[in-house]
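Problem statement: downstream parser choked on a complex file, so we are re-checking the raw output for the FE2/S2 (inorganic) cluster run. The parser issue turned out to be on our end (a line-ending mismatch), but while we're here, posting the original submission so the record is complete.
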Amino acid sequence: MDEPDGWYAVALGADIEPSTSAGTRLFGHELVVWRDAAGAVHVWEDRCPHRGMRLSFGFVRGDHIACLYHGWRYDAAGQCRFIPAHPDLAVSPMIRTRTFPCRERAGLIWVRWGSTADDAPEAAPVEAAPVSPLRSLYLDAPAARLAAALGGAGSDGLARLDLAGSPVLVAVQPLAAAASAAHIVVPAAPEAPTADLARLAAACIALRRTIEGAAP
Ligand code: FES
């Protein structure tokens, strides 16, 4: 599948709490999204350089993430700093994971993808207006179909949608050729009543059914 350069939302910020990690995909590539104890987010290839275990199964300690399998520990730059089986070893700088520029804006975690991914632009093209997280929807539908159903995204990477009478912002994540995710936030509604968010969450489910049922 095509992998256009750009910024892509890969999670709701609220879903990645401090000292936790989660696996996701972008264009079929496995990624780990993790947040260190200080709150900074990181997006890496979801693969330990040792024997390939998913780092999303690992443990976050402070500003490091440790692999579940043999405990190799990586710092926030992706450099392996500690190997438990050889605690006195000065770890080679060659042992490092692949990392990607990432940002947290508009309640979403964004990763810069593409051939220029190492040249991180200063800011993801996303407004910084206050938002409330709603939910992430995972669809058995290509990202292009999802984006078309949403009417396309603005220059900030977000589609505007009226959902059950309420405006929402939606970012599309191409998971794989026939799978996508929609990360949905509610603009400027930090005190939205729970019942209202529940109504919107139900509308999200209906939206997913509509898009998955649409003709390819
Ligand atoms: S596979 Fe990760 S430490 Fe061995």
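For whoever reads this later: The pocket of FE2/S2 (inorganic) cluster is lined by residues 48, 50-51, 53, 67, 69-72 (CB under 6 Å).
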